[in-house]
C-alpha cells in the first residue's frame, strides 16, 4: 500500500502540472362562470355597473401622501465556542465577560445565551484518483473518517454527502435517514478522475448552505490539494467568508507524508505545506477548526471536539455601531475580558488551576446594502 501511495505522491509532482405552454390542451380545466339564476337572459357580473374608484382612472395615481417606512436596524448574531486545551466546551461564562470587536471597535452586546440544537452537516469528501486509488492508504483513511464521523451523529441531525474530484457530486441530500447516508458512503469505491478541485467543491457547497438556518457546518475530508479549480484561492476565501458556514477540515495522509518526506522533492513538500495552510485558513476564517491526525486513535477525539464546538455555543447578539449599508466585509473578534480592568479574562478549573482556552467564532460578516 505504501508503494501505491508513493506512486500517487510522485505523480502529483510530475503533474504540477421551456418556455410557457401556449396551448394547454384538453387536460386543463376551463370552468365557465356560472350564470346568475335570477337573470332570465343569463347575464353575468360584467353587465353590472362598475363601482367608482379613484384608482380606476388612467391618470397616474398620486402617492406622495402615502406613508413611507424605513428601517436602519440591523442585528448581528455570532456563535462562539470557548474550548479548553482538550477541546472541551467551557460553560458558565457570564455575559459581562464577553467583548465583541467589529473592525477593532467594541460593540454593545444585547444578549448572550447558550444554545444546543440539532446539526446540519455537509460532508465534503475528496475522492479522486490523485490519491484515493482503490485499496490505497489514503482511500482507506478517507473511508474510516467518513464512516466514523457519520456514526457519531444524533438521530435528529441532518447530513448530506458530497464527493468531489473534477467536480462535486451530491451523493445524498440533507436527510435524517441514516440508511441513505450509508448508501451514499458505500458508493465511495473506485474514483474516476485524477483531478481534485477543492475550491470549486467547497464554495459550491457553502453557497448551497448559506440560506440554511440553525447550526450548520461543513466537514471537509481532504488532502487540501487543489489541481484544476475554476476559481482561485483568494476568490474561494472571499466566498467562504460571505457564506457564513463554518468549515471543519480533517487533513489526509499526515503519517504517510512523514514516511515519504525523504523521498519527496522540495516542491512536493511545499505543495503539501500549502495544502495544510489552505485548510487552516478556511477553518479559521469561517469559525471552524482544522485537524491533521497521524494515527487512527485520534479520530474519536476529533469527532468529539467537532460536536462540542458545534452543539454547545455561546450565541452573542449585538447591534453594530457602524450603521452604513455599504456591502463591505466587517471583521469580528470575540474576546473574554475582565470588565473592571479590561484585561484578558483568566479561566480556571475546579481546582483553581489556570486553563488555556481558545475562542472559535467566524472572522466576520458582509454588511447589507441599501434596498432600492
Written description of the protein model:
- This protein has 372 residues and is an alpha+beta fold.
- It is 27% helix and 24% strand.
- The protein has eight helices and 17 strands.
- The chain has a six-stranded mixed sheet, sandwiched between helices. Strands 2, 3, 12, 13 and 17 form a five-stranded antiparallel sheet that branches. The chain has a four-stranded antiparallel sheet with strand order 4-11-1-16.
- α4 packs parallel to α5 (233-243) and α5 (233-243) packs parallel to α7 (266-286).
- The relative contact order is 0.19.
- The model is unreliable at 13-31 (pLDDT under 50).
Q: Mean of residue pLDDT? A: 83
Q: From the alpha carbons, calculate the radius of gyration and give it in angstroms.
A: 28 Å
User: What is the global morphology?
Assistant: globular
Q: Count the helices. How many?
A: 8
Cross-sheet strand order for the largest sheet: 7-6-5-8-9-10
**Secondary-structure content class:** alpha+beta
Amino acid at each position: 500500500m505504501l508503494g501505491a501511495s508513493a506512486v500517487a505522491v510522485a505523480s502529483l509532482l510530475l503533474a504540477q502540472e421551456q418556455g410557457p405552454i401556449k396551448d394547454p390542451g384538453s387536460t386543463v380545466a376551463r370552468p365557465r362562470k356560472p350564470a346568475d339564476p335570477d337573470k332570465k337572459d343569463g347575464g353575468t357580473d360584467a353587465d353590472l355597473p362598475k363601482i367608482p374608484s379613484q384608482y380606476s382612472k388612467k391618470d397616474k395615481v398620486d402617492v406622495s401622501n402615502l406613508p413611507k417606512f424605513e428601517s436602519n436596524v440591523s442585528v448581528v448574531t455570532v456563535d462562539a465556542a470557548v474550548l479548553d486545551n482538550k477541546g472541551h466546551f467551557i460553560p458558565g461564562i457570564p455575559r459581562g465577560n464577553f467583548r465583541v470587536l467589529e473592525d477593532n471597535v467594541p460593540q454593545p452586546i444585547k444578549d448572550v445565551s447558550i444554545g444546543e440544537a440539532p446539526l446540519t452537516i455537509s460532508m465534503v469528501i475528496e475522492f479522486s484518483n490523485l490519491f484515493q486509488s482503490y485499496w490505497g492508504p489514503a482511500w482507506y483513511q478517507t473511508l474510516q473518517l467518513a464512516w466514523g464521523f457519520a456514526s457519531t451523529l444524533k438521530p435528529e441531525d441532518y447530513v448530506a454527502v458530497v464527493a468531489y474530484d473534477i467536480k462535486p457530486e451530491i451523493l445524498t441530500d440533507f436527510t435524517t435517514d441514516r440508511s441513505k447516508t450509508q448508501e451514499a458512503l458505500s458508493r465511495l469505491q473506485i474514483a474516476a478522475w485524477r483531478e481534485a478541485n477543492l475550491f470549486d467543491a467547497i464554495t459550491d457547497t457553502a453557497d448551497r448552505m448559506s440560506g440554511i438556518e440553525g447550526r450548520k457546518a461543513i466537514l471537509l475530508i481532504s488532502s487540501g490539494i487543489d489541481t484544476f479549480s475554476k476559481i482561485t484561492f483568494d476568490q474561494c476565501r472571499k466566498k467562504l467568508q460571505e457564506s457564513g458556514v463554518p468549515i471543519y477540515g480533517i487533513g489526509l495522509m499526515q503519517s504517510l507524508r512523514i514516511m515519504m518526506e525523504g523521498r519527496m522533492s522540495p516542491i512536493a513538500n511545499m505543495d503539501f505545506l500549502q495544502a495544510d495552510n489552505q485548510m487552516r485558513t478556511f477553518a479559521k476564517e469561517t469559525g471552524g477548526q482544522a485537524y491533521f491526525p497521524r494515527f487512527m486513535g485520534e479520530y474519536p477525539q476529533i469527532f468529539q471536539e467537532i460536536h462540542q464546538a458545534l452543539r454547545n455555543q455561546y450565541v452573542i447578539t449585538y447591534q453594530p455601531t457602524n450603521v452604513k449599508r455599504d456591502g463591505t466585509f466587517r471583521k469580528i473578534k470575540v474576546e473574554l475580558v475582565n470588565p473592571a480592568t479590561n484585561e484578558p479574562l483568566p479561566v480556571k478549573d475546579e481546582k483553581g488551576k489556570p486553563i488555556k482556552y481558545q475562542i472559535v467564532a467566524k472572522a466576520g460578516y458582509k454588511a447589507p446594502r441599501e434596498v432600492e
